[in-house]
Specification:
By secondary structure, the chain is an all-beta fold. Helices cover 0% and strands 68% of the residues. The chain has strands spanning 2-7, 10-28, 33-51, 56-58, 61-77, 81-92, 97-98, 104-105, 110-123, 128-148, 151-171, 177-192, 208-217, 226-235, 238-239, 247-248, 251-261, 265-272, 291-298. The chain has a 15-stranded antiparallel sheet that branches. Strand 2 (10-28) and strand 3 (33-51) form a beta hairpin. It is extended. Mean pLDDT is 89; it is low at 1-9.
């Protein structure tokens, strides 16, 4: 990629190159136990800025990043219950930083490491399915500002941790009747950061989120294809700004829909926020009051 910057009568260009290799394989240890091994190697390099007037480069650097992945799946009950665990690693390349004392800090890539384990199930003749999973995500090599001698120096020892669990349930107790439910619990904090952020919760990260949707469709007779759905979403409290002094309140939205579903088309009337509750999303944007939508979808 190239950028052109003009300042008066001088100009500079910037050029970088990225090269990556990804290798992955799934090993069937037994018919019930599988292992996935993956590794990605990336090399990022740049000569930095090229000054057209001086015909010289400045700010050259390169980084090599390794990103491994590991996955394990074991089925104690064939095609019904699966136990899983995985490890994933991701990264972001960070360029050098000019310090107030005119030195240059060469940064390492920022890494995120995720561990997850859980169970998935599909039982009762495919009438009940779901999953339960626990996860832990840690971020290291984040940059932060440290005031030294009255000047703002960049240091690369910042860390962040997100941990929690998720539940999902899909049920079809009788023909035409469907239930989808979910819940997520998350704690997302800065574990090492500037004094104003350390041990503070990350903004736009509610600790509790839940959803429920129940629908029924008539599958025969004169009303074949007519259906009704009702459900809602719950969003817990979340911090609006990084110092955790202003919180966005929790809210619950009730929604419903009536539809007519045929092989070639579907007509739907949906009502959102039927309780007309005032609410803001985790970024502080006000959301719509009670509203209704009508739609027609054609199937090809």
């Amino acid at each position: 990629m190239k950028f052109l910057l003009k300042r008066g009568f001088s100009a500079t260009t910037f050029k970088s190159e990225s090269f990556g290799v990804y290798v992955s394989d799934v090993l069937n240890i037994t018919s019930d136990f599988m292992v996935m091994l993956s590794l990605r190697i990336d090399k990022y390099s740049t000569k930095g800025n090229y000054d057209l007037s001086k015909s010289t480069y400045s700010g050259a650097y390169e980084q090599v990043s390794l990103s491994p992945k590991l996955g394990l799946v074991y089925q104690p009950v064939k095609d019904k219950v699966s136990l899983f665990a995985n490890y994933m690693n991701g990264f972001v390349n960070l360029g050098p930083v000019n310090q107030p004392d005119n030195t240059v800090l060469v940064l390492n890539p920022q890494y995120a490491n995720q561990w997850e384990l859980g169970v998935k199930f599909d039982v009762v003749k495919n009438k009940l399915a779901g999953s339960i999973s626990f996860y832990d995500i840690s971020v290291k090599n984040s940059t932060r500002i440290d005031v030294i001698g009255g000047k703002n120096f960049t240091v690369q020892d910042g860390t962040q941790r997100s941990k929690g669990y998720e539940l999902e349930l899909i049920a079809n107790p009788v023909k035409g009747f469907n239930i989808i439910a979910g819940y997520a619990n998350n704690e997302n904090k800065y574990t090492k950061a500037s004094t104003t952020l350390e041990n503070k919760y990350v903004t736009a990260s509610p600790k509790h989120i839940g959803n429920l949707w129940v629908s029924y469709t008539i599958l025969d007779g004169v009303l074949d294809g007519v259906g009704l759905g009702v459900g809602g979403n719950y969003i817990g409290e979340s911090w609006f700004e990084s110092t955790n002094s202003f919180v966005l309140p929790s809210y619950t939205l009730l929604n419903a829909s009536v539809f007519y579903d045929r092989p070639k088309y579907r007509i739907t009337l949906k009502g959102n926020n039927l309780l007309n509750e005032y609410n803001w999303n985790p970024t502080g944007t006000p959301q719509k009051p009670i509203n209704f939508l009508a739609s027609v979808a054609y199937k090809f």
